């Protein structure tokens, strides 16, 4: 599990923490026969993972990651079943962000404006790369994707109440993603 908090000590502060297992992969439905005309193999829709409250027994840093031990998860097999799960907290339980700070989830869905006021698109997803670099996947108005490396010098302003962020992309970034390939 990836931890995105400033400090693992925050885990000790939350009144409740919730665990959402990763969604299972779809599996073919048993009994579907592909050899008969008109019958197709169907894919069984997996049940949505159930979020449940959990209690953290302890945690510690381990090889650059956070190793978390939960009540009721007593052995390695039970822990392996949780691989890829998400730890969640209620928004109301989050500490107030500091001046000029925001939570990553708040960025998703914001309208992306350029310095001249024109609209580039919307932030579809926030990605944290292994080296700690934050990247926004921006869907443009014409359906293209721009991967925007976030740095203080590239973000001119954010207004969560109004739902927008103004960016100043590094030179050549937009041309890399938005040049029309048909003219070449």
From TrEMBL:
It holds the Pfam family PRC_RimM. Residues 108-173 form the Ribosome maturation factor RimM PRC barrel domain. GO terms for molecular function: ribosome binding. GO terms for cellular component: cytoplasm; ribosome. Residues 47-92 form the RimM N-terminal domain. Belongs to the RimM family. This is Ribosome maturation factor RimM. It comes from Desulfovibrio ferrophilus. The gene is rimM.
């Amino acid at each position: 599990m990836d931890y995105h908090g400033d400090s693992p000590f925050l885990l000790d502060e939350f009144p409740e923490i919730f665990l959402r297992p990763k969604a299972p992969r779809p599996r073919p439905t048993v009994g579907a026969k592909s050899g008969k005309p008109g019958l197709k193999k169907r894919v069984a829709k997996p049940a949505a993972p159930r979020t449940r409250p959990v209690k953290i027994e302890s945690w510690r840093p381990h090889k650059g990651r956070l190793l978390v031990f939960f009540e009721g998860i007593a052995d390695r097999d039970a822990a392996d079943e949780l691989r890829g799960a998400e730890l969640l907290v209620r928004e109301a339980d989050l500490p107030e962000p500091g001046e000029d700070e925001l939570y990553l989830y708040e960025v998703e869905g914001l309208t992306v404006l350029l310095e001249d006021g024109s609209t580039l698109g919307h932030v579809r997803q926030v990605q944290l790369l292994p080296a700690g670099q934050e990247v926004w996947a921006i869907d443009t108005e014409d359906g293209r994707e721009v991967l925007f490396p976030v740095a203080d010098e590239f973000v001119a302003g954010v207004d969560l109440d109004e739902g927008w962020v103004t960016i100043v992309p590094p030179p050549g970034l937009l041309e890399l993603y938005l040049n029309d390939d048909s003219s070449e």
